[in-house]
Amino acid sequence: MSKPQAQPVSGFPSRSLKRSPTSPRTLFGIVMTALTFLCAVLAILPLVAVLSYVIIQGISQLNASAFTELPPPPLVPGGGFGNAILGTLIMVGIAALISIPFGIMAAIYLSEFSNTGKFSYWIRFATNVLSGVPSIIVGVFAYAAVVLTMGTYSAWAGGFALSILMLPIVIRATEEALRLVPQEIRQASVGLGATNFQTVSRVILPAALPAIVTGTTLAVARAAGETAPLLFTSLFTQYWPNWNNQLKEPTASLAVLVYNFATSPFKNQQEFAWAASFILVLLVLITSMISRLATARRVY
């Protein structure tokens, strides 16, 4: 007894639903898939190349003394760059203390209290312009505003310059995070009798906290790697930050150390430049991992 043949559906022959490996449509799909994969690899290749080269060159120079000792003179073995690590953490900490509170408050005002209006428009316009200003221009401004006023290069001036670079990132990231919170959550909170302040402080901010942390950590990562503003504000020194003088002296940083030692003709200082570059990249990677962990927690 012969098996009954499948009848065509909607008037189309049944063989038209089978994928032919030699049809133009299938070949076009294969070519486009291969092309997109190649473009993705080319996009990742610069990051992989930079990380690989910095790790290979820098990790061989790392040891315990690199974190606890001062930079050595030319052609003198040993030493480290502990003062640059400490100086970087101090200046980034000062910048975070200035930019994060102001940035978050400005974003709350824009998102929750005055979404439209001329004042909000000009705040957003200033934020966009500030995010595009070259970092060296920010360094010159901080030099005129802080260094000339205090009469000396200092960690405070470096932190002030870095805070200007962090501020637009914090504002934009926080505003976007607040906008991601569903409007129904605000309406439910107000419907239960909460005031705008209670809604923002107890409902909206906790819901948007992971994305806000992401924005702030990315801003911190950018500030840690900036060099040009620090050349005009904190300069560099071979010594530890001076707490007795309230940090009102030139302060070392990893970015400026890399800049100075990479252009040095002495091999031992060039090797320290690679090691400092590795530490700098490691700090950026750690902050990026923290931001990823923060975004993994979703409230809504």
Written description of the protein model:
70% of the residues lie in helices and 0% in strands. With 300 residues, the chain is mainly alpha-helical. The mean pLDDT is 86.
Keywords:
300 residues; 11 helices
N-to-C order of helices and strands: HHHHHHHHHHH
Distance between the termini: 61 Å
Helix content class: over 70%
Q: Report the total helices.
A: 11
Helix-strand category: mainly alpha
Model regions low in confidence, pLDDT < 50 over at least 5 residues:
none
**Which value, in Å, is the CA radius of gyration?**
27 Å
Indicate the proportion of strand residues.
Answer: under 5%
Silhouette: flat
What's a quick, concise take on this entry?
The protein is built from eleven helices and no strands. The mean pLDDT is 86. The N and C termini lie far apart (61 Å).
Question: What's the helix and strand layout?
Answer:
Layout: H1 24-59, H2 64-68, H3 82-113, H4 118-132, H5 135-150, H6 155-179, H7 183-191, H8 196-224, H9 228-233, H10 254-262, H11 267-295
Helix pairs in contact: 1-11, 3-6, 3-8, 3-10, 4-6, 5-6, 6-8, 7-8, 8-11, 10-11
